[in-house]
Amino acid sequence: MALLEARDVVSGYGDVEIIHGVSIDVASDEIVSIIGPNGAGKSTLMKTLFSLVDCWDGTVTFRGEDVTHDQTSDLSRNGMCYVPQTDNVFPTLSVEENLRMGGYILGDPPKENYERIYNHFPILEERKSQQAGSMSGGQQQMLAIGRALMLDPELLLLDEPSAGLAPDLVDDVFEKIIEINEDDTAILMVEQNARKALKFSDRGYVLEMGENRFEDTGEVLLNDSKVGELYLGG
Ligand SMILES: Nc1ncnc2c1ncn2[C@@H]1O[C@H](COP(=O)(O)OP(=O)(O)OP(=O)(O)O)[C@@H](O)[C@H]1O
Ligand SMILES: [Mg+2]
């Protein structure tokens, strides 16, 4: 049994169906990437898994339990956390206040939770009093991930963690993701930097027009000529 199992998930907005029956698994020790063209439905799928978008058909199980229609707040409390593609920090709050908000479900989060995050991201400790909106894009992305880690998730959903970052910062963020995974957190992420992401992903899925197109190990997808040509820019 995988930690997360999405089966034949159908969802959309209003009466427009965007996800037409997608299936995805994430095991408890894995890093899994979802790649695919703009508008393929990657973000919509992530939001459906996290109950921000209604699941119209199919099922999502987490640790073997049906969570298809669970509330977002219950999912976070129970070990699944999500970092959105945009607007993922409170710009006018300080770094520490952002972290506290990340853990607000716990009431006043214990000191160890902050320490765990500061261990992963020393820059956040150095800047804990700084206003989040005044930090660089890379630092804000680290903070967004840090906020989600306040609840010590078993599964972290990341929508484009490297979006808009310079290449060396992309590598920094990816290194942190690997470190978090080594610290016993499964990762499901959407990535535009598909080649780089697949290099360190255990497995990957190619999504196109709301459907599964390819799935395999990161390595096989990277070396597949069709995937390369169509989705990795040759
Ligand atoms: N809130 C919304 N209301 C209506 N339609 C939406 C909404 N959000 C996304 N869509 C539509 O759903 C489709 C899939 O969008 P989605 O954002 O999931 O794609 P994506 O694969 O994440 O794209 P990108 O790579 O650009 O982030 C698109 O046609 C988009 O216009
Ligand atoms: Mg998206």
UniProtKB/TrEMBL annotation:
Residues 4-234 form the ABC transporter domain. One of its GO terms (molecular function) is ATP hydrolysis activity. Keywords: Amino-acid transport, ATP-binding, Nucleotide-binding, Transport. InterPro entries: AAA+_ATPase, ABC_transporter-like_ATP-bd, ABC_transporter-like_CS, BCAA_Transport_ATP-bd_LivF, P-loop_NTPase. GO terms for biological process: L-amino acid transport. Pfam families: ABC_tran (PF00005). The keyword Nucleus does not apply. Belongs to the ABC transporter superfamily. This is ABC transporter ATP-binding protein. It comes from Halorubrum persicum.
